[in-house]
Design brief:
Largest sheet: 8 strands, parallel, barrel
Radius of gyration: 19 Å
Shape: globular
Distance between the termini: 17 Å
Bound molecules: phosphoenolpyruvate, magnesium ion
Oligomer: single chain
Number of helices: 15
Order of helices and strands: EHEHHEHHEHEHHEHHEHEHHHH
Strand content: 5-15%
Strand order of the largest sheet: 1-2-3-4-5-6-7-8
C-alpha cells in the first residue's frame, strides 16, 4: 500500500535530482506489468525472445509488428531496443552454430550479428521502422572494442539508407548506444563515450566477466556480487566517463533494481535505472526518500573498500539512513 502511493509521482530525490526508472521486458506481453507499475520507459527490450520462441528466423515484418506494438504501447515514452543477444546460454536450434568450449566467451551477440549481416540488417530495418511509432533507442550488446561499435553503426546507417531509398518512414533522430557489460568497454568508456549516444551498464554480464564467475553457477554464487570492489570501480568509471562526455548513462542489469545498490548508484550520478517491472515502485519510493548530495561521499568511499563483504556491509548501512527509515 505504501508503495502504491508513489504511482504517478516523479522519481526525484529529496534534493531535487530526477532519475528515470524504466522496465526490462522480453515481449509485448510484459506491457501490462510495465504500465501497472508506472514505468517511465522501457530501458531494455530483450529481443532475443522473439527469435527463441520461433522455429525459424523471424521475418522483418514479424519483427516490425512485435517492436511496433511495444513502442506504440508506451505512448511516446522511450523504448530501448537491444539487438539480438544470442549465444552463451541462449541458443537458436535453427542457426547451426558449432559447439564451443567457452560459449560465454564465444561467438555471440554483436559478434554473431557482425558476421551474419544478413540477420542483423533485417533486425535493424525492423527496429528502425518501429521508430516511426514512438521514441526508440537502439542498444548494441556485448561490445568489447571500438571497431565493433563502428561496424554496427555502419550497418545501421546502411539500413537507414535503404529505408530512405524505399521511402519507408523511420525516426531520423533515433539514437544508438552500447551495453557496457564487458570490462574492456568499461575501461575504454572514455573512448566509447565520444562515439555513441548513451551507455547502458549490464551488470549481469559485467560481474561475470570482471570476476571470472559464470553467472549461472550456483556453487560460485558467493563470488558473484555487484559489490565486488572491482565491479563498483568499473561502474563508477563508466558513469563518470559518460557524464564527462555529456551522454546519458543507464543501468539495466539486476543491480539497478537492487535496493542495496540504489543509494550508491545515485551517489555516483547514475540517472537511468532499468529493472524488472515489479521493482519499480520500490525503487521510486527509495529515490524519493534519499538525498543525492549526501550519497556522493558514500559513492566516493565505497570504491576505496577492498573486499566484497566490506562493500556489502557499507551499502546495507546506507539503508539505515534516517531519510529512509524515518
Ligand atoms: C546484463 O548483462 O546485465 C543484461 C542486462 O543483459 P542480459 O541479462 O540479458 O545478459
Ligand atoms: Mg548481458
Amino acid at each position: 500500500e505504501r508503495l502504491s502511493e508513489v504511482r504517478g509521482m516523479d522519481s526525484v530525490t529529496l534534493d531535487g535530482a530526477r532519475v528515470e526508472l524504466g522496465a526490462n521486458v522480453g515481449s509485448s506481453r510484459d506491457l501490462d506489468e510495465v504500465l501497472k507499475n508506472d514505468a517511465e520507459a522501457i530501458g531494455l527490450y530483450r529481443t532475443e525472445f522473439l527469435y527463441l520462441e520461433s522455429s525459424m528466423l523471424p521475418t522483418e515484418d514479424e519483427q516490425f509488428e512485435a517492436y511496433r506494438s511495444v513502442v506504440a504501447g508506451m505512448g511516446g515514452r522511450p523504448v530501448v531496443i537491444r539487438t539480438l543477444d544470442i549465444g552463451g546460454d541462449k541458443k537458436l536450434d535453427y542457426l547451426s552454430i558449432p559447439e564451443e568450449e567457452n560459449p560465454f566467451l564465444g561467438y555471440r551477440a554483436i559478434r554473431l550479428c557482425l558476421d551474419r549481416q544478413d540477420i542483423f540488417k533485417v533486425q535493424l530495418r525492423a527496429i528502425l521502422r518501429s521508430s516511426a511509432f514512438g521514441k526508440v533507442r537502439i542498444l548494441f550488446p556485448m561490445i568489447s572494442s571500438l571497431e565493433e561499435l563502428r561496424a554496427a553503426k555502419g550497418l545501421l546507417e546502411e539500413a537507414k539508407e535503404e529505408l530512405r531509398a524505399e521511402s519507408v518512414e523511420f525516426d531520423e533522430g533515433v539514437t544508438s548506444g552500447i551495453m557496457v557489460e564487458v570490462p574492456s568497454a568499461a575501461i575504454l568508456s572514455d573512448q566509447f563515450a565520444g562515439e555513441c549516444d548513451f551507455f547502458s551498464i549490464g551488470t549481469n554480464d559485467l560481474i561475470q566477466y570482471t570476476v571470472a564467475v559464470d553467472r549461472g553457477n550456483d556453487k560460485l554464487s558467493p563470488l558473484y556480487s555487484p559489490c565486488h570492489p572491482a565491479v563498483l570501480r568499473l561502474v563508477k568509471t563508466v558513469i563518470e566517463n559518460g557524464r564527462r562526455a555529456g551522454i546519458p548513462v543507464a543501468m539495466c542489469g539486476e543491480a539497478a533494481g537492487d535496493p542495496r545498490l540504489i543509494p550508491v548508484l545515485l551517489g555516483m550520478g547514475l540517472t537511468e535505472f532499468s529493472m524488472s517491472p515489479s521493482s519499480i515502485l520500490q525503487a521510486r519510493w527509495m529515490v524519493r526518500n534519499l538525498r543525492k548530495s549526501d550519497l556522493e561521499k558514500a559513492a566516493e568511499y565505497v570504491v576505496t573498500l577492498g573486499t566484497t563483504a566490506e562493500a556489502e556491509a557499507f551499502c546495507e548501512s546506507l539503508l539505515m539512513s534516517p531519510d529512509l527509515c524515518g
